Amino acid sequence: MPRRGRVFSGYVRRLLTLSLLLLGIFPAWGQQQRIGLHDYSRDLWTSRNGLPHNTLRDIAQTPEGHLWFATWEGVARYNGLEFTVFDRASRPSLPDNGIGALHVDGAGRLWLGDSRGNVTRFDRQGNWWQWTPEADAAPAVIIEAMQKDSHDRLWLLYEGVGLGRLDPDGSYQRYLPPAPLRDAINFTKLVVDAQDRVWLGTFDGLLYLDADGVLKRAPESFGLPPGLAWPYLAPDGTLWVAGVEHIYRLEGERLQLKHRLPGIGQLTSLLQDRHGDLWLGTENNGVWRLGPNGVERLGAVGTLLDSRVTRLLEDQEGSIWVGLNGGLLRLRAAPFSSYSRADGLSGDFVRTLLEDPRGQLWIGSSSGLDRMSADGHIQPVVLAAGEQEPSVLSLALAADHGIWAGTRGDGVFHIGSSGRVRHYRLGSELPRGNYRAVATGPAGQVWLGSANGVLQLENGRGVPLELPGMPQAVVLALSWLQDALWIGTTEGVWRLQGEHVEKVDIATLGEARAAYGFRQIGQAVWITSDRGLHRYAGGKLAHVGLQHGLPVDTVFELIPDELGNVWVSSNRGVWQTRLEALEAVADGRQARLEGRMYREIDGIANAQANGSSGPAAIRRRDGSIWVATAGGVATVQPAALARFQSWPAPPAVIEKVSVDGEPLNWNAATVSAIPGGARVAVSYAGLSYLMSDRIRYRTRLQGLEGEWVERGTQRNVEYVGLSPGSYVLHVAAAHPDGAWSEGAALWHFTVQPLWWQRLDVRIAASVLAMLVLYVLFRHALRRYRNKNARLEKLVSQRTRDLEQQADRLLAANAEKSLLAERLREQAEAFERQSREDALTGLANRRAFDKILARDVARAQRSRQPLSLVVLDIDHFKSVNDRWSHSVGDLVLRKVGQLLRSTSRDSDLPARLGGEEFALVLPDTSLAEARLICERLRSLFHAQQDWADIDGLQLTFSAGVVQLDVTELTPEQLYMRADRALYRAKNEGRDRICEA
Q1: CA distances, 868 to each of 12, 36, 318, 917, 925 (Å)
Q2: What is the pLDDT of residues 792-803, one digit of tens each?
Q3: Is the confidence at residue 13, as pLDDT, over 80?
Q4: How many Cα atoms occupy the beta-carbon half-sphere of 371 within 13 Å?
């Protein structure tokens, strides 16, 4: 076999082997379906969200799954969630920040060429190798492109100065172009084909390096026109050549023109994807795709696609990465796709959707009304010619197959099937306000939801429905279901059937108020509200809310699909669950719902779905679900979701290890040694770029843990104070609800013992401890003997001392008994003083309160009468002022004697303070208490010459009360007696008043 044939055969074998290996790792590769260009979800990155620089010079993916981006500020490695930048300041460091080219060789090693001609290699074990050209041996300019041939030689394309070749033994050879071609070497494209021919792209035609090592122009037989031409080598070995608005393919030794692209502009990058479609990057005309659908252009993505496309790459999962002068764009498969202003909508804030009988989709937004044809073409519908288009809040099908459109503050429009627009204006034909809902009935009725209830359109005017019980609140939703008009308002739900109005009280379940929509499923009507979902069936309500697993309170629309799912729109995304599970929860047969929330990462341009307008979500005839959001229209085809549930598990990689906060330059192929007692932190990632933030992880530290430990979405693990020994950390990753990756990421390490954990130190410590114990034993024995002798001497002395002490204790005991008796007597005196008034010997206020509370409680239990007398000596202050306080004391003692003389043993006479006294009279009625007071009053009158003072007469005023059933506390009884006392004083004193 000729040499060139052997080389080609070996190249093909390696290519097939690599393809089979990748298909084994990612079995979904060969099964992935072609995705419509619009159905790609788009993600953007710039220096604001992680990129070190906005100009992407090259993109590569290493076999384990990391993506690498070459920029002017270093090379950035991406794991799906964050960028790790390697530059001159990192460890290990690069010789220069400006990275011009990347290349992944057959061994999975990453090669980097920088702006000073240096070459750096990063292998799969984490080792870095660098080659710096010697002075004058190689150009110290930027390496624009690099690629290896079948002999493992690395070819380097330098800006403007030709080629270089770095051999496996480290030798270097430079290839200077002939003088006539030196001005042509000013483009960045280089490929090495299956025959080890090196092809170069220039602005002055296509060049190649012949077998003699001489750069030459492509053969004239290629038929290339003058000017720009550059090569691209597809994954299947096909060599493509891009010219000015032309694309060629090398077939045998002839170049065949395959595509003419007039007006596309200068081509800057090519990519042949796994389906054979050809992706084109341009200088300033965006990204294009050539495939079964012809020539397709990717819609604008902000201003990024106005810049130069520098590189196109398809990753291992089929996503397309677009490197630009202004940032990075990713196109990936996602469950949802979105339409926005960039796709032709009048505005992004979409409020309502409707499909007409012709399969056209009507889209109402804050910027007007649009119509999407069945082929996806969007065109605006002019409602207000020459004026600003109204904000459309609601849509409904008209009886004439036209469309009704309610607006914010601009009335209602009717668009006929012919396209004629009829405007029902505010003021003259309709009440002023917003029209968030429109519904039509089977007999052609048209109902409008206004800010003050429901209107019916009659003879071109909106007439309020003034039936008993009709709501007057803001109407948010109207639907004709089950031969009735369902009305959702900010204050609840009503049903209008004929002229009968019924309120459906959703507030009784879940405290709901606002109702946003209605959906009939079977014989039930489901209501979306600000407190979840309500089901109305057979006149009964059921509620499904947060407590049942619904992820949000406020839900706007409930849409069933053809596969048994229901889709619920909300401010936080679109939630999917099973209809049968929803019914089971509503029936009480199941406690909680399980479901999945779809957000921006799933292809929804804005996770805020809109409501308070309608319909805000629909199911179209093809089974797809369409949702109005704050970022356009989001759509999902439930039947196509199966492909997103069969993704292979993402490969897990360990990215970073630190010991006590310091990075460890670890190597996956060797065993790392960790000092004992250290804190070990490990960061890891699952290398999938489809739903990176939802990847689940689990770890197992062999040598410590016997079972896997679920980590959720946590991407790091930490261990502190591991025992000395050998360990292996296993890390596995999985997509949500998917299988775990079979090949776990591994890191082998050993924990070294601390100095006191070493075996020799422990043996020496044991011997030393035994010697110390022996010495201590001998010393303790000697001390014991000496101490025993001293103790014998002390025993006799202490015995004598104890006998003397016993005598003293007996004497002290007798003295203590005498003292205890005195203390008892003193305590009794103190106790008596605490409850007796020292002057009169009567109970004091403290004893009075205690006994009154006791007798009140007893009377309440036994239902026996209890009376209370509160009395006050009349004009007692004048006694003190005229005859002195000692005379006043004599008077008070006499009063105490009189009170005791008139009291029974069960009664309690007490001095409350000053000249105020009280009598607590258990088992005494009010009449009996009055008699006791009269008897005491007679004793006062009979007493002459009080305190032996001639002519001194004293009287008292008293209030007497009996406990009432309404009085719950002694304080209430006392206050009533006190009021009676004050009435007695106010009425002239020397009297008894009842209350």
Answers
A1: 117, 97, 97, 11, 10
A2: 888 878 888 887
A3: no
A4: 15
